[in-house]
Specification:
The chain is α+β, with helices and mostly antiparallel strands and 1004 residues long. It contains 16 helices and 50 strands.
Length: 1004
């Protein structure tokens, strides 16, 4: 069937002069898929492992492709049309794969930089043999002939006809005439497979041949002072370039052109100097970098560039779905320019590295399947530590099958320690314009992929010792950037890119063709020999960042601590810790090429990302030492006054190190909170932290989960709220990982505050815990601990602690469950040592009349044996003691958060009923010797006002409560409960409700 390259639509406005290309791949609506759960991606549902046989009712996979705008159906596809398909399979446990990538990318994690070896992926994370066999049998039963599964186990190739595919997958095929005259075919409905194997298939690629091949680096201009910005090279006679000793400033073809290095173009030396990179003939020695291409490359042009620069870099070719010499020759001044730019930029910056050109079929005829095949080969070969791609397509027209298959391939690369960088596009904020004519905001794939580092573009000028850099956005095009329509917020961008989806790009580098990259390329209409020219686009920015990573990997720090691998975790950590040291912030310009786009600003923006590299500082951050997480029995260190580590309302601990933000945490977003080295906490040795977490300005019902950074997000929760405009707090004890950071996730958009009350260390210098039978020390409703029954309004309550409720005189801190009830309006409680200055951090918050809300607090005891409780607003106050810290007692051990109880899965706990919960022997908790357990207990589905009490099984139910609520509320609170001799704790509820219990650690 005839196919041709789709001509790029003309640019309106300021971009009308652009005629060039940045290579971009494949196909609008080419195939179909179900969404694969990724660590950071959206998902329409979990994909499970299929059974051994293809049976059960047929199940559709994904959706039918959309007919492109302006296209018309022309009739049924010829039954004999050959289709080259891949049936793509889910990893055996997608979440485990995501967790592994996080672990190998997080300093302090025991798996940090312990990447999979070549060929290990299939056995560790690939589908099981039974799954592969089951899918293959189902395909054979449908009349197809599946080929050998890929080395990573993720795809099964199938070559068939339209008629056979129609029968096997329950779909028809129609021919489509596109608006440029190209005739393609597509499937008319989503494919189906037997249900027991369909759940293991993430998509079937190749059922449609529609593509939108469009390339987007700039037009090449002459290396001559007298040429216009868009003129092509002309008038060159055949000649050879005389080899000379390595010099990063290039040869006379450029230095004698009348153009100025650093103004009209950037030589490798000048570019390396601007970005703090090394400039030498051996830079990158011992490393391998791969480039993705969909066109031939002219070997003579590469040789001419090497001769001009004085290098002898190894450049080899791997052909995927094509052969050497097939396809259009790289001799017309257009084909081969992309490849030349990618390879020659790398030669100039890392001449000591080896370069592998992975080449697929020509972009004019390539399919989604060809694109996947090339990426998969680059990853399964696992020869290159860094992969650079300057090809992509508008995210909105890419099929979910292709996107999800790519996602798994790039996760595989991350698991193997391969860094992948991708150009973000040259069409500004309207990445779909060339494919569909739409000026709506859109971003580019694969730059938007969660496991890929998207690279945007800048304009740069050097005058003397001063170099300035702005956003690339002018008549020649503009840096791609914006917010993904597909991928959910990613953990690594938390607090930096406060967007509702993954933001693009991550970083940027030189892209403006007006001051771009010097290359040699072949244009037979101008000369029989390669000619020098200048070119730009984010196609140059991507390999520039690839070179920066190669140089980092070759350096002493990475040689000691392990190669960078998946880049984004390290990039954003470097930005949070020391942004000005590691990045060159680009603060001016915009990417409004076709329509109003995004504007650069201080810190991260959807135009240039974090900015450009500052080589030396960034290399140190990317090649961080492994570190060690503190473990074992721990003792407690209370802070004399709570310290605020995070407040999204005013930027405390939120944003980059030098550029805070005041935006709320978005739904599905994550806030990383630095614990070690902050707020008076030691810089190492911390095993856990006690935080008071507050949500305020809520936008709807939601929940919060806290966990150790670099580990899997648990299915537990620490705080709940039921509607908009609420302010609710809860105390929680969170394990601290080796990088000294904890993560906070919220399911709905809200402002978030984190105050630290104290911390645990693996040393013996802190306090130990003694559990008590809960006792009520204060109840303003009934004159307990106070001489009034009136509500307290804007006053301080002096509460006697030592000598009361079992708290001895040697106690240094007390654990209280504070409850505000019968509130009037909004307000809060603050607990602190009597005699100390009242802190600015609150412990219990409420926002409405009639609220009943508890919270656990750990409070240092004043020298007079008392603690102070300040009431802001009007409320009754209850305080129940459950334990204390002193030099005697027992140590604390953290565990991975785990849900031990959820009555929603069984039966709600009835009014006046008691439930016994086994603690000892569960989730790394010892089977003996456990004295108390740290739980977050939540009540939900409450049927009326009530309370919950927790105590050691076998003991008497105390008169104190741990949670109080009114009807319809979901309330969570941390409790430290003594454990009975049988290893159990008891819960009692005064009204019917569901009860959830999540464990954080134990005392033993």
């Amino acid at each position: 069937m005839a196919k041709k390259a789709h001509a790029a639509p003309g640019r309106p406005g300021r971009a009308a002069a652009k005629t060039g290309r940045r290579a971009r791949a494949i196909a609008a609506a080419s195939t179909v898929a179900v969404a694969l759960i990724a660590a950071t991606g959206t998902a329409t549902g979990a994909v499970g492992q299929g059974g051994a046989a293809g049976s059960g009712a047929p199940k559709r996979i994904g959706a039918a492709p959309r007919v492109p705008a302006g296209a018309t159906m022309t009739g049924a596809t010829a039954s004999g049309t050959r289709l080259h398909l891949s049936v793509n399979l889910a990893p055996r446990d997608p979440q485990s794969l995501a967790d592994f990538v996080t672990a190998v990318s997080t300093p302090g994690n025991a798996q940090y930089h312990h990447y999979l070896a070549k060929g290990q992926f299939a056995a560790v994370f690939g589908p099981t043999r039974a799954t592969i066999a089951g899918v293959s049998r189902a395909l054979k039963a449908a009349g197809l002939s599946p080929g050998k599964v890929s080395p990573d186990g993720l795809s099964i190739p199938v070559t068939t006809t339209a008629a056979q595919a129609s029968h096997a997958f329950g779909t028809g095929f129609r021919d489509v005439r596109l608006k440029d005259g190209t005739t393609d075919y597509l499937n008319t409905s989503a494919p189906s497979l037997p249900a027991d194997v369909a759940s293991s298939v993430t998509g079937i690629v190749g059922l449609s041949s529609i593509n939108t091949v469009s390339s987007h680096h700039s037009a090449v201009r002459r290396a001559s002072r007298h040429s216009s910005a868009t003129a092509t090279v002309s008038g060159r006679s055949s000649r050879t370039v005389t080899p000379h000793t390595y010099t990063p400033g290039l040869c006379a073809d450029f230095t004698g052109s009348g153009l100025t290095d650093g103004t009209d173009y950037y030589s490798p030396g000048k570019l390396a100097g601007a970005y703090g990179m090394t400039s030498s003939a051996t830079a990158g020695a011992g490393q391998t970098v791969a480039v993705f291409e969909l066109e031939n490359v002219d070997a003579g042009s590469i040789a001419a560039y090497q001769s001009c620069l004085g290098t002898s870099t190894s450049v080899s070719n791997v052909y995927v779905d094509t052969t050497a010499g097939a396809g259009a020759p790289a001799t017309d001044g257009s084909v081969g320019v992309e490849s030349a730019l990618d390879i020659e930029d790398l030669i100039g910056l890392v001449p000591g590295a080896a370069i592998i050109d992975y080449q697929g079929p020509d972009a004019a005829s390539a399919t989604d399947q060809n694109v996947l095949d090339v990426y998969q080969r680059m990853v399964t070969d696992d020869q290159a530590q860094v992969i650079s791609t300057s090809w992509g397509e508008c995210e909105a027209v890419e099929s979910s099958a292709t996107a999800n298959a790519e996602n798994t391939i790039f996760a595989e690369a991350a698991a193997q320690g391969q860094s992948v960088v991708a150009a973000s596009g040259d069409d500004g904020s309207s990445d779909c314009y060339r494919a569909t004519g739409s000026t709506a905001k859109a971003v580019d794939d694969p730059a938007s992929q969660p496991y890929v580092t998207g690279v945007g573009g800048t304009t740069m000028t050097t005058s003397g010792s001063t170099t300035t850099q702005t956003t690339w956005g002018n008549a020649s095009g503009g840096t791609g950037g914006g917010v993904s329509s597909r991928w959910a917020p990613v953990v690594y961008q938390g607090g930096v890119a406060t967007t509702t989806k993954r933001a693009v790009p991550d970083v940027s580098a030189l892209a403006d063709p007006a001051d771009g990259y010097p290359i040699y390329f072949q244009d037979d209409s101008q000369s029989s020999s390669p000619v020098p020219g200048l070119v730009g686009g984010t196609s140059g920015a991507a390999p520039t960042w690839a070179a920066a990573i190669v140089q980092a990997n070759a350096g002493t720090a990475c040689q000691t601590n392990g190669r960078v691998g998946f880049l984004n975790n390290a990039l954003y950590k470097a930005a949070r810790s020391s942004y000005p040291t590691n990045f060159w912030d680009v603060t001016s310009g915009d990417n409004s090429v076709y329509a109003t786009g995004y504007t650069a600003a201080a810190g991260y923006d959807e135009v240039t990302g974090l900015g450009s590299p500052k080589g030396a500082g960034l290399t140190t951050a990317l090649c961080a030492a492994k570190g060690t997480a503190a473990t074992g029995a721990s003792t407690f260190h209370p802070l004399s006054s709570p310290k605020r580590l995070l407040d999204t309302r005013n930027g405390t601990g939120w944003g980059l190190s030098s550029i805070p933000t005041t935006k709320p945490l978005v739904a599905g977003g994550t806030a990383p909170v630095k614990i070690e080295g902050a707020g008076g906490i030691p810089s190492s040795g911390v095993t856990a932290v006690v935080l008071n977490l507050t949500v305020t300005g809520t936008t709807g019902a939601g929940s919060l989960t806290a966990w150790a950074d670099g580990t899997s997000k648990p299915s537990t929760s620490n705080l709940h709220w039921t509607g908009a405009s609420q302010t609710i707090a809860a105390s929680t004890t969170v394990k601290v990982a080796g990088d000294g950071v904890v993560d906070l996730y919220t399911s709905s958009t809200t402002h978030l505050i984190a105050d630290v009350q104290g911390y645990y260390t693996s040393g013996t210098t802190g306090s130990k815990y003694t559990a008590l039978t809960p006792a009520r020390l204060l109840d303003t409703r009934s004159k307990v601990g106070i001489s009034t029954t009136s509500k307290i309004s804007n006053k301080v309550i002096s509460l006697k602690v030592r000598g009361h409720g079992g708290v001895p005189t040697a106690a240094t801190s007390v654990v209280l469950n504070l409850t505000a009830t019968q509130t009037v309006g909004g307000g809060y409680l603050e607990a602190y040592p009597e005699g100390a200055t009242r802190p600015t951090a609150s412990n219990v918050n409420w926002s409405a009349t009639g609220t009943t809300i508890p919270n656990l607090v750990v409070v240092p005891i004043g020298s007079d044996g008392n603690v102070s409780i300040y009431v802001h607003g009007t409320s009754h106050v209850i305080a129940d003691v459950s334990g204390y810290f002193s030099t005697s007692g027992s140590a604390f051990d953290t565990v991975t958060p785990l849900r031990l109880l959820d009555t929603r899965q069984t039966t709600a706990l009835g009014s006046g009923k008691t439930l016994a919960l086994q603690i000892s022997g569960r989730d790394a908790i010892p089977s003996t010797g456990v004295k108390a357990v740290v739980l977050t207990v939540t009540v939900t589905g409450t049927t009326g006002s009530g309370y919950l009490s927790a105590w050691a099984d076998g003991g008497s139910r105390p008169t104190a409560s741990n949670l109080n609520w009114v009807q319809g509320k979901t309330i969570a609170n941390q409790v430290i409960v003594p454990v009975g001799s049988d290893g159990k704790v008891d819960f009692y509820t005064s009204s019917t409700t569901n009860v959830i219990a999540d464990v954080a650690g134990y005392i033993g």
